[in-house]
Amino acid sequence: MFKQAFHKLEKEISGDIAYNFVSEICRHHRIQSSPGIRAAVEYVVDTLKGHNLDASVHSYPADGKTHSWSSLHFQEWSCSDAELRLAHPPEEVGVLARWSEDRISVIQRSLPTPEGGCEAEIVVLENGEEEADYRKLDVEGKVVLTNGDVSRVHALAVERRGAIGIIYDGMFVRPPTLLEGELDDARKYTSFWWSGGEKPVFGFVLSPRKGRWLRGLVEQGRKKKDPVRIWAKVDSDLYDGATENAVATIPGETDEEVVVIAHICHPQQSANDNASGCGTAMEAARALGALISRGDLPKPRRTIRFTLVPEMSGTYTYLAANEEDIPRMVAAINLDMVGESHELCQSIFTVIRTPESLPSYANALVEAIFDEVKKEVTTFGGRRKLPLFRHNVSAYSGGSDHYIYSDPTVGVPCPMLNQWPDKFYHTNADTVEKVDPAMLRRAALLTATYAYSIAVAGAEEGVWLVSEVAAQKRAALVELVRGEVEGALNAAEGDDTGRKLAETIARLKRVVPYKVGRGVEAMRSVSRVAGGDPGFGERVERLSSELERLAKAELKQAESAMREYAAVKGVEVPRIRKKRSGKLDREASGIVPRRVFRGPVSTRSWVRKLSDEEQEAYRKLGKDHPSGRSLGSLALFWTDGSRSLGEISELVELECGETDLEYLVAYYGYLRSMGLVEY
């Protein structure tokens, strides 16, 4: 039902126009709440107005005091100049980093040095994230050189021990796409994230190669008892100002709307992250506006709204300031890093679904359109078309603005378009030369078709859409069971063969009904856009019954296959007894958390409500449970004020295949102490 619009957009959308938008945005140093991001927002608004779109700047306070839901507004930060020089030994005097050459050479939100600059000794920290790293080190009044987490180093070296500056020389390593030393001459985007009351400090960023050289020089000086010294100057300011979003609309005939989101922040060079998303959104807006104004596409029933915002913080402010509009937002889509040259960046174009706590038709629609985008070149036999790019569809993961919209307390289903991995992510090597106009065009075509299809959807489109949701859920169910059976039979070796098979059967008997329930809810969600169809309810009931019958048949087939395999192997498939509740289970079943704020929790300003000991324990909790952060995010989505933490943990496991009850009990305890949840 989307193909007519798709083919018209296919002829209108230009990857080169999107690339030009990206190039212009890259010229601005777009740190959240800064003059640079303001200039970028104004560029977007002026440009879209030039294409006859209704566009405006939405401004909010940037004062370090105001909250939008749980998210603290940044204070505005500006920097006019900064320089780091080696001052001693005399034979090595020279520039180490300079703002005028590279904006990423400064740790963003660095506070000013005394007028005229300052000179200080350098002390090397291998990491600096643990108290033990400072044993026998005196950093008071000195500058520390570290590759550790800057916020943690600030807490330990600056606030507790009196260091006056930080030099950072770390870099990502992500095998197999980014190996040690591959970005030896790049600088990593690094920032302070002030929440109020921290001890002021300045900071600079060096490449790993330059950092190793400086570390060696410091070690030589230590052996000679002739310390290396630097001279630093930062002309910056942190003050109460303003933060801005760019908002543009293609008006519809009703007060309902579809939202397209892209984050416009990040340092000056940052092209794929995320000038690419912004340029794509602008081109989708331009193309839709042009086709509608010419009459090639009918005016949509629903408004299509484009929001280009500082990542996360801009979405919090926009939604909190427009809460009355949220019930009228029928769907959204988030564009984050969509322009990568696959050959250079080693990336994969991925559609990321909504969380299962918010099942939605939006996933089926975006995947169906994505299948059409992938039809690029005819096969050798001439019967099918294949894509010329790497692609994937993924279960929900967070990390960008879509996770705010898709939070069930907000309730706006929001898939994300993303390319990952990206070799140059969050470095000064993320330049416009790494952007591919062809990828921008694909992303813009997918985005515009998705937004317009929802904007015009009614009863007729609903008939197709609910059928498409049902078909995708049936296919997913078959694939889930097939994968479980294959995995069980391949793993069933040795003395515990029977038990492994029994555990798989028991797991399927839990997971399959859960998936059916999520599928039925996704079908029902089509009613959000298919109003006026008298047969909708009956159609959903029929398709739901078909899904349930398929589930029973698949379960029966899977169990038969595993029991037959066991018989051939000559082993018993034991009955799995229900695990007895332990102390932790009983504790979790007695906790019924309620979220205090709408939207995902933003803990930046709330952690400081904890005591020093609690903050240390909270940090250690995250370190000891590597997957805890993502599990905690999923758990909060299931937190509706009526479920116990034990029930929430079970739902998390059903959604993603794992849980960590020990982590969740402790994590919610800290959220309670911060004032972000109540029991």
Fill in the keyword field for this structure:
21 strands; 7-stranded mixed sheet; 19 helices; 4 domains; alpha/beta; Methane Monooxygenase Hydroxylase, Chain G, domain 1; globular; Glucose Oxidase, domain 1; about 675 residues; Aminopeptidase; 8-stranded mixed sheet
Would you write up a description of this structure?
This protein has 19 helices and 21 strands. 48% of the residues are buried. Helices cover 42% and strands 17% of the residues. The radius of gyration is 27 Å and the shape is globular. The protein has helices at residues 3-12, 15-26, 35-50, 150-159, 208-224, 275-294, 313-321, 342-345, 361-373, 402-405, 437-456, 459-491, 497-524, 536-569, 583-589, 612-624, 628-638, 645-656, 661-674; strands spanning 54-62, 67-68, 71-72, 76-88, 94-98, 118-124, 143-146, 165-168, 202-205, 229-239, 241-250, 257-263, 303-309, 329-336, 348-352, 377-378, 385-386, 391-394, 416-420, 594-595, 677-678. Strands 1-11-13-12-14-19-15-18 form an eight-stranded mixed beta sheet, sandwiched between helices. Strands 5-4-10-6-7-8-9 form a seven-stranded mixed beta sheet, covered by helices on one side. α2 crosses α6, α9 (361-373) packs across α11 (437-456) and α16 (612-624) packs antiparallel against α19. The chain has four domains: 3-73 and 242-456, Aminopeptidase (3-Layer(aba) Sandwich); 76-239, Glucose Oxidase, domain 1 (3-Layer(bba) Sandwich); 459-569, Up-down Bundle (Methane Monooxygenase Hydroxylase, Chain G, domain 1), CATH 1.20.58; 583-678, no CATH class. It is of the alpha/beta class and 679 residues long.
